[in-house]
Write a structure and sequence with these properties.
- By secondary structure, the chain is mainly alpha-helical.
- It has 12 helices and 6 strands.
- The strands form 3 sheets. Strands 1-2 form a two-stranded antiparallel sheet. Strands 3-6 form a two-stranded antiparallel sheet. A two-stranded antiparallel sheet has the order 4-5.
């Protein structure tokens, strides 16, 4: 997405294009990296921007392949002749290597400091637990946690922010409305803060509407049927892989008025509408990162506005 920003130079108004997609991804990656390893990975103060670019390419390719159909899905024997599994293994190995490097760096830094961990990071805490329970907290377990967080918490969050900005730019009356609320409640002399959001419910409605129209994972993650069941006259045996089409459900005209229209006000006017949103899944299988994702998108979007 290209965003035009107004620049004032020598009292002459000009416009410059700002490419947001890569910047938003780097921001999301930095947030995850600060929590996991206590350092930035992109930007002027970032460490290893080349690695960050390679990792971004791996994540984008992983999402593209995970959401695409393969002929072997319909005729399994073709899986022996096609390179889909080989490519997925290559991508998995690349992320595994990335995660192992983070663990090795933290372990080496801890050793250099004589075992005194001053940084409170997720990897440091897991390595501390590894010392007392090496079986439950093996490197492979820590890498799996890192891989899950990096894949689930980078591209999805940055894409949601990008969609929100795109929808706002195409609906200028909404930008005017939310900007006025921010100026009234926060002012324009300081950056927006987490404590301000309780007074900005309309901004939260914009995020909900964005997730409703463009969920970060349109088909959620694959599930498996636990029992035999009949759904809409279809026999579904137990052990069947199930994909939930959140994109279609959240645009179902039977459940939503004007389902394809960007109208954040619907969440103000109709209380309880959130129960029909499944962008993060539902019930016990709901995404545990929902709170973090909402907070991150909210602070970024509020700051940009």
């Amino acid at each position: 997405m290209l965003l035009h920003t107004k620049q004032l130079t020598s009292n002459v108004s000009t416009f410059a294009k700002v490419e947001l997609k890569s910047r938003l991804f780097e921001l999301s990656l930095n947030v995850m990296m600060r929590m996991m390893a206590g350092k930035r990975y992109c930007g002027e103060e970032g460490e290893g921007s080349d690695s960050a670019r390679r990792f971004r390419g791996v994540v984008e390719e992983l999402f593209a392949r995970a959401g695409a159909s393969s002929l072997s899905d319909f005729l399994p024997i073709l899986g022996f002749f096609r390179g889909v599994n080989r490519e997925m293994k290559r991508l998995s190995a690349a992320i595994d290597e990335f995660s192992q490097r983070l663990i090795d760096e933290e372990r080496r830094e801890n050793k250099d400091k004589g075992g005194e961990r001053k940084k409170k990071t997720m990897i440091a805490d897991l390595l501390s637990l590894q010392e007392t329970d090496p079986i439950s907290y093996r490197d492979q377990t820590i890498k799996s946690i890192c891989m899950s967080l990096l894949v689930a918490g980078t591209e999805t969050t940055s894409n949601t922010t990008e969609w929100a900005m795109s929808l706002l730019l195409n609906n200028p009356h909404t930008i005017t409305k939310v900007a006025a609320k921010i100026i009234t409640r926060v002012g324009n002399e300081q950056l927006i803060d987490e404590s301000d959001f309780s007074n900005l419910p309309y901004l939260h409605c914009i995020i909900k509407e964005t997730l409703c129209l463009y969920p970060g994972a349109p088909l959620l993650v694959p599930h498996e049927s636990r029992d035999d069941l009949i759904l809409n006259n279809y026999n579904i045996p137990h052990g069947t892989m199930l994909l939930v089409n959140a994109y279609s459900i959240q645009r179902d005209p039977a459940m939503w008025d004007d389902p394809d229209e960007f109208r954040p006000e619907r969440f103000e006017e109709e209380k309880g509408k959130e129960k029909h949103m499944i962008a993060f899944g539902n019930e016990r299988r709901k995404c545990s990162g929902e709170g973090l994702a909402i907070r991150e998108v909210r602070i970024v979007l509020g700051t940009l506005l």
